[in-house]
Amino acid sequence: MKYLSTRDRALRVSSAEAVKLGLSRDGGLLTPETIPQIDGEFLRSLTGVSYQERAAKVMALYLTDYSEEELRTFASNAYGPDKFDTPAVAPLRKVDETTHCLELWHGPTSAFKDMALQMLPQLLSAALGKTGEDKTVCILVATSGDTGKAAMEGFADVPQTKIMVFYPKDGVSKVQETQMVTQEGANVGVCAVVGNFDDAQAGVKRIFSDPKLRETLAERGYLLSSANSINWGRILPQVVYYISAYCDLLRDGEIAMGSRVNFCVPTGNFGDILAAYYAGRMGLPVGKLICASNKNDVLTEFLRTGVYNKNRLFHNTMSPSMDILVSSNLERLLFDLSGENDAEVRGYMEALNTSGKYEVSETVKGALQEAFWGGFCDEAGTTAAIARYYKEHGYLIDTHTAVAAGVLEQYRAETGDTAPTVFVSTASPYKFCDHVLQAIGETPKGDGVELLEQLNAVSGVAIPKRLAALKGKTRRFDLTAEKADMDNVVLDFLK
Ligand SMILES: *Cc1c(COP(=O)(O)O)cnc(C)c1O
């Protein structure tokens, strides 16, 4: 199967190249030329097998340059017991008769990014061999908090790779920052950027599209690539867990084959919910996709009006991994909804570039509203959802998950839809102890990792082992740069 640029269908690359490059040369996103179809029989065949096996089977449909055997090995490396603290990998927790929570934070960094970033380095490493690449790949990452750590954890000491992470200086939680600046590995680098996530992301995109810089780096033996969700190798491992969740519901007798299930996803860069959309396009019986935003409600407005407008105030919230105004992966959705009309997508993206906004056609808007429902949850609503889940269900959820829980409630109140719904839990509550403690009526005593034990004492929920181990770790990185200086940071890192 080939992968096409969303901005130029004539630009086609193999699956291994798509993973290696991360982004198409013309700035478009590499997207599969066709969407493989699955049926009831396929789903039934997955209900009795492990998560690892499900991952290999689903990914093989798209990654035709890789053998299923290879993918099976990658999946067992990625999701094994030394990495994930539950054999289910991505377990479903039943909240009530029609509500289930898909916990995606049982991996090494306690955020859902591990689901893809334990897999991507292996796909990429193999892609270098498959495409005969002799350069060292340098992964550049802009992170709103969780991607950076998960990417470093995945790429640390992987041969023929280096990784440089940029995070917004005051835009991540204390635990997130500690996780990043204590990262081990000889091939990793971390830098704080003065600005917000969009500044960091724009800086990385600028570096990618600077031909002169790329040439300099090529002379030094380096090739740039991306571990952000613009890389197809990030999206695909995420398609797996939606299919897996459906199989679990079938296995446990919660639904009958063919029943439609809604998914409610806390959204930032639109990668996670896009994966759910692809699962639906493959034939998984998906009802509504509920797109949950925090106070940065650009997507809610877009889904309701068809106008995407990033010209607005940026809010730093207690769910920092969703503090994003430019959701890159929407581009793949627009490509699909417009009938793969590359000229139309190019027009939207040019408008976004020049005026910070675009309005989609009536056709695209109709298709958008057919598949998605958008809502947002402000800070008070987020706190209230954490408190309510803790009190009513004895379930401790993090600030991002709480946004989804809050928006799901709005959706049900507004539409009366009673279909079974899975909402996605994207981080362990221990990554955001201060806000979680406050939400359940406690006064945080201290800061950052000091709060892990307090939350544990109050809630009785076990602290993820690797977060507990942060306490004794030494800081390895202390670099801060202005956004205009990010290219120099990269040149310095790749001397
Ligand atoms: C990255 C992240 C999100 C947003 O996911 P997208 O794929 O960017 O939409 C939500 N919650 C947490 C905890 C995250 O780390």
Give structural notes.
With 495 residues, this protein is of the alpha/beta class. It contains 22 helices and 16 strands. The protein has helices at residues 15-21, 40-47, 51-60, 68-78, 113-117, 120-130, 146-155, 174-181, 197-208, 211-219, 232-251, 271-281, 298-305, 330-337, 342-355, 362-371, 379-393, 399-415, 433-439, 451-459, 465-468, 486-493, and strands spanning 2-5, 8-14, 30-32, 92-96, 99-103, 136-142, 161-168, 188-194, 222-226, 261-266, 286-293, 307-309, 357-359, 372-376, 421-425, 480-482. α8 links the parallel β7 and β8 (188-194). α1 (15-21) packs across α6 (120-130), α11 (232-251) packs across α12 and α17 crosses α19. It is globular, with a radius of gyration of 21 Å. The chain starts with a strand and ends with a helix. The mean pLDDT is 95. The chain binds pyridoxal-5'-phosphate (PLP). Residues 111, 113, 146, 229, 266-272, 321-322, 400, 426-427 line the site of pyridoxal-5'-phosphate (PLP).
